[in-house]
Every structure is written in C-alpha cells, then in structure tokens.
Amino acid sequence: MSQPSGEAATVPSRDPESRGAWRVPVTVYPSATEASAEVAREIADLIRLRASRGEHVVLGLATGSSPLGVYRELIRWHQQAGLSFRCVVTFNLDEYWPMPADSPLSYHQFMRRNLFEHLDLDPSNIHLPDGAVAREEIEVSCQAYERAIREAGGIDYQILGIGRSGHIGFNEPGSDRTTRTRLVELALLSREDLKRDLGGGEEVPRLAITMGVGTILEARQVVLLAFGRGKAAILERAVLGRIGPALPASFLRDHPGGRFVVDQAAASLLR
Ligand code: F6R
C-alpha cells in the first residue's frame, strides 16, 4: 500500500462476502499522534457546531490505550483553545463487574483520571455501566443504560479500540450484531492483555458489563482506532476477513458511518 509520507491515506476495504463491493474506509496516518489529533479535531468541530445551535452532542467513549491520544488532544482543546464540554453527554462502552466505581482499577476511575476531571463536563451528563450493581439487578441496570442512550437521542460519535480477540467493547467472539448491553465473560486473550496492562500483580477481572454490538452499531458515526504492530493481524482480519460474530469488529464494515483510523504499523498487513 503506497502512502504519501506525512499525510493520511484512505484505503477502501474490499468485502469478500459482497462480491467485490468496497466498504468502510480505512484511514492510515503516519503515526498514532497524527491520527488522534485528527479524530479529536473532528470531535471538537462537532461539539462547536452543536453548541452554536444550542444542541447537545452524545459521545460514546472507550477505555484502554487506543483513545488516550484523542483524550489528551480533547483536554488541550479545552484548556488551550477554550472549547467547552458543557453541551456534551458521554456514554462509556463498558465496566468490569463486580467493580466499585471508586476502585482504582475501575473504568470509572480510568475515565476520571484520563479525561473527565480535566474538562468542564456536567457530571450528570457522564454515564458508564454500573459495575457495582447486584447480580440480580444487572439486567434491569443494562436496560436502563440502553434507555438512557435512547433518551439522550442516541450516540452521535462512538470511539472504539479493538482487542486482540477482535472484540469491540467487551463483545468477544460469538457476539452477534443484535447483542445489547449485558453481562459478558472476557475471552482468555483479553484477560492476558489485561494482566499485562495491570502489571501482572492484580487479579484480572473475569466479567464485565458491555454495550452490545447492536448498541454500538446504532451510533451515527463509529471510529475504530488501532495503533501499533500488535494490532496488525487482528486489524487485517477485521478489515478483509469474513463479516460475522467470529470477529465482532468486522460488523463495522456494515455500518454506513463506520471507519477504521489506524497508524502505519497497524496497517502493515493490509494489502
Ligand atoms: C475498552 C474496550 C476495549 C478496548 C480494546 C483495546 O473500553 O472496550 O474493547 O478498546 O480492548 O484496548 P487497547 O486500546 O488498550 O489496546
């Protein structure tokens, strides 16, 4: 794949199941930093547009390493360019279960540290699945999460990472396109990665509450971020392999507003 250095290259992906139709753009940036700056700029533009009309904007957010560059840039937009987040409503993809919101391992705390505490978001506009809910109340809590997304008008712009298992959110292989917010078991590969991320010393969570593939695909725009050589093999399967529950990220190719935003290292196996 050729690409002018210093510029993003957009590569249409071919869907082998649809007899030659080209689907879902893959935009390759020279680095994760440039890709993240571009995604953050798009989000900032959307926020400014909605704010100028007196409307709110609903962002779907992810944890993990992939969105960190976007979050750093958004903080910069707020602190240095004065961009206000008062009109922003957020919904996170997932939270471990059981997990108290104040645990340093929780995604609640991850988001607070890496984004929320640096912005002027209204705390009542921030939503994450409740990892502290009792088992018998999980289903009702998940339905309430879905309802809150609907009542906010649906997600305008969803950010995703991709796990080495091919998961989006914690929709592991086997999750089909109709799945909704629910309790799930983490794949072995995902737990290995978590163990590495947590430094190996912590007990690795086994369960999580995640938005479903169906919930994610209802967002108007969905941007999957994949950076680094470690993502190359799974990205290649997600972009060029069969669309189906064996690799939940592949469902993005069926979404008219779906995009893969990647760096050169992650794109290295896309031919
Ligand atoms: C996180 C999430 C996961 C991660 C994925 C990639 O909220 O839902 O799907 O996006 O595991 O993680 P990183 O970005 O750490 O490689």
Characterize the structure shown.
The structure is a single chain. Helix content is 30%, strand content 20%. The protein has helices at 32-52, 68-81, 107-114, 138-151, 188-197, 213-217, 232-240; strands at residues 9-14, 22-29, 57-61, 88-92, 94-97, 126-127, 157-160, 182-185, 207-210, 221-226, 258-263. The protein has an 8-stranded mixed β-sheet with strand order 1-2-11-10-7-3-4-6, with helices on both faces. A 3-stranded antiparallel β-sheet has the order 5-9-8. Strand 3, helix 2 and strand 4 (88-92) form a beta-alpha-beta unit. Helix 1 packs across helix 2. The termini are close together. Bound molecules: fructose -6-phosphate (F6R). The site of fructose -6-phosphate has 14 residues, from loops.
What attributes characterize this protein structure?
271 residues, alpha/beta, 3-stranded antiparallel sheet, 11 strands, disordered N terminus, binds fructose -6-phosphate
Q: Report the bound ligands by name, code or SMILES.
A: fructose -6-phosphate
Sequence of strands across the biggest β-sheet: 1-2-11-10-7-3-4-6
State the helix count: 7
Overall shape: it is: globular
Structure at a glance:
This protein has 271 residues and is of the alpha/beta class. It is 30% helix and 20% strand. Residues 1-5 and 18-22 have low confidence and may be disordered.
Which helices and strands, and how do they pair?
Elements: E1 9-14, E2 22-29, H1 32-52, E3 57-61, H2 68-81, E4 88-92, E5 94-97, H3 107-114, E6 126-127, H4 138-151, E7 157-160, E8 182-185, H5 188-197, E9 207-210, H6 213-217, E10 221-226, H7 232-240, E11 258-263
Parallel strand pairs: 2-11, 3-4, 3-7, 4-6, 7-10, 10-11
Antiparallel strand pairs: 1-2, 5-9, 8-9
The protein binds fructose -6-phosphate.
Residues 62-66, 93-94, 161-163, 167-170 line the site of fructose -6-phosphate.
